[in-house]
Write a structure and sequence with these properties.
- There is one protein chain.
- The chain has 610 residues and is α+β, with helices and mostly antiparallel strands.
- The chain has a domain of 262 residues: Gamma-glutamyltranspeptidase, small (S) subunit (Glutamine Phosphoribosylpyrophosphate, subunit 1, domain 1), CATH 3.60.20.
- It is globular.
Length: 610
């Protein structure tokens, strides 16, 4: 009887939510694959930049119905859980940076390590596991924080009822959405997802091939889960049968079980933190200085970006816009700029590896995370940059203190999606959201024996697999119970700085997916906007470069740099590797009284608004 009453209640709820929002499933143009040039979108008052047209449209419809930026972000994220399952979802976590006329806030929904996790989580016979072996299965799953975070933000900044915000995702899950070329390509390339029976039956045909591009994929299991969460709030996810199904999936994995428990889910807390900002001179903004604001530890994004931009701006030669135009009609960074940028990045990544971790477990150097952004310290670090690649880079000692920590060895990082939103009420946000690797831990959670479900994160592989070095010095980002793994996510808001040094008008919201490369994608976009007179779309279109560790090879985006550039960088001592860099940047930029939206041509994102 209880199930029948619940089913009737959920049915009425879904109908009510859709009626109140008046949600309509949009007609999509035929999906395209590969690089698609985008001109940017001129907006008057509000807009949503997200990684999928269905998600952007859902957020825009929420704004049209009187919703706030946070309301729209919830609708966008639920749709992304369905249509971009490889990158983010309710089985993962996020950082949300929110601004209104009163305050600037960080909402931290980063996953945590289970209570039973130990420093040796990723050691077998005292040796670190192979990354691919650690990812697939329950061992890598952290406690998901996304829904708790969104609920917390909605309680403070929402205008529409929570239940209404799930209407777009419920409708799309029930009626189905067309598989995009990108999703199809990623499914075709993945070799692990079919090991999970639930995921295999949902994403793949009987012959083992993924459903074709354009196939309308329905997810009744996720629709049912969304209805429960819409009705009961986030508690429906963190307790009861959904939580039990999640825990069973993690603990009962046949070859790589994990430690996540019901108690871990029930005790998880999303946190509210102060934003971290740094001052930066700007060549082309309306004010001489801007304030670049983002998320501090456990994210490494804002601090590392601040270090790179600070060191790079110490040499005035780096400020001049390059005059050469390259592939795709974009500016071509010079060899000298690429050298200087990536030497600064190596120095910053060395500090990142040495110092950054969950602030509940790791103290900042010199008692303040901003010691890493101190101008004199950055000038000292930048003085090491010369005409050739520094042979070996190590961390500095801000405040003369390195805490006796060991640097974290380089590890692979993947995944993620980004959302930027401005509403018509003066609220703006930047939210970066992730399940880490493509398709996370390759575990799909479902209830009621329905097809589909949601994927779980592999966020614990963002911890160092090695807890200490040969001298016994601990790694700041080692696994510890209840700890949040270090992240590269860099949701960013840029403000004009007033003459008295206060935070002034909001100028931009931006961020990107891309693992450790998120830092470079965001930093280089900022640099082009602030110093090279590029609008957000032009800046996003620029060719990418970067390093993923202090002494790692220099990565260049495939096919976008000339042979002469590659040769010249090698002459300067760089080990150069070309690779694809599907960044997925999203941005909103103020242009006078209007807004301008931009989406990365490397992925399928768009901007929706008016």
């Amino acid at each position: 009887m209880r199930k029948a009453v619940l089913a009737l209640t959920l049915g009425l709820l879904a109908g009510f939510a859709q009626a109140q929002l008046n949600y309509r499933i949009p007609d999509l143009p035929e999906a395209a694959s590969g690089y698609q040039a985008k001109p940017g979108w001129l907006l008057k008052r509000r807009g949503v930049a997200a990684a999928n047209p269905l998600a952007s449209d859902a957020g825009y419809q929420v704004l049209q119905a009187g919703g706030t930026a946070v309301d729209a972000a919830i609708a966008v994220q639920m749709v992304l859980t369905l249509v971009e399952p490889q990158s983010s979802g309710i089985g993962g976590g996020a950082f949300l940076l929110h601004h209104n006329s009163q305050q600037l806030q960080v909402f931290d929904g980063r996953e945590t390590a289970p209570a039973q996790a130990t420093e040796s989580l990723f050691l077998l016979n005292d040796k670190p596991m192979a990354f691919s072996d650690a990812v697939v299965g329950g061992r890598s799953v952290g406690v998901p924080g996304l829904l708790r975070m969104l609920e917390k933000a909605h309680q403070q900044h929402g205008a529409l009822p929570w239940a209404q915000l799930f209407a777009p995702a419920i409708a799309l899950a029930e009626e189905g959405f067309p598989i995009s070329p990108r999703l199809h390509a990623l499914l075709s390339a993945d070799t692990s997802l079919q090991r999970d029976p639930q995921a295999a039956s949902y994403f793949f045909q009987a012959d083992g091939k993924p459903w074709p591009v354009g196939h309308r994929l329905q997810n009744p299991a996720l629709a049912s889960i969304f209805k429960r969460i819409a009705l009961e709030g986030a508690n429906a996810f963190y307790s009861g049968d959904i939580a039990q199904a999640l825990v069973d999936k993690v603990q009962q994995h046949p070859s790589n079980p994990g430690f996540l428990s019901l108690q871990d889910l029930q005790t998880y807390q999303a946190l509210e933190r102060d934003a971290l900002c740094f001052k930066h001179a700007s060549t082309f903004s309306a004010t001489k200085y801007v304030q670049v604001c983002g998320v501090g530890p456990p994210s490494s994004g804002l601090l590392t970006i601040g270090q790179i931009l600070g060191m790079l701006s110490s040499d005035e030669s780096n400020l001049a816009p390059p005059a050469v135009w390259g592939e795709r009609n974009t500016l071509m960074p010079t060899t000298a700029w690429l050298h200087n940028y990536n030497e600064a990045a190596r120095l910053a990544f060395a500090d990142r590896a040495q110092y950054l971790g969950d602030p509940a477990f790791v103290s900042p150097p010199a008692h303040d995370w901003k010691s890493l952004l101190d101008n004199n310290y950055l000038l000292s670090r930048a003085s090491q940059i010369g005409d050739r690649r520094i042979p070996e880079v190590s961390a500095g000692s801000p405040g003369g203190n390195n805490h006796g920590l060991a640097p974290m060895p380089d590890q692979t990082e993947y995944g993620t999606s980004h959302i930027s939103i401005v509403d018509g009420l003066g609220n703006t946000l930047a939210m970066t959201t992730t399940i880490e690797s493509g398709f996370g831990a390759r575990l799909m959670v479902s209830t009621e024996n329905l097809t589909g479900g949601f994927l779980l994160n592999n966020q614990l592989t963002d911890f160092s697999f090695v807890p200490q070095d040969e001298l016994g010095r601990p790694v700041a980002n080692r696994v510890q119970a209840g700890k949040r793994p270090r992240s590269s996510m860099s949701p960013t808001l840029v403000f004009a700085q007033t003459e008295d040094g206060a935070r002034g008008e909001l100028l931009a919201s931006l961020g990107s997916p891309g693992g450790a490369m998120i830092i470079h994608f965001t930093a280089q976009t900022l640099w082009a906007m602030l110093h090279w007179a590029q609008d957000a779309q032009q800046a996003i279109n620029l060719p990418h470069s970067g390093v993923t560790g202090a002494n790692a090879p220099l990565l260049l985006e495939s096919g976008l740099f000339t042979a002469a550039t590659l040769s010249n960088l090698k002459i300067l001592g760089h080990s150069v590797k070309e690779t694809d860099m599907p960044s997925g940047l999203q941005a909103l930029q103020r242009l006078g009284t209007d807004w301008f939206g931009a989406a990365d041509p490397r992925r399928e994102g768009v901007v929706a608004g008016d």
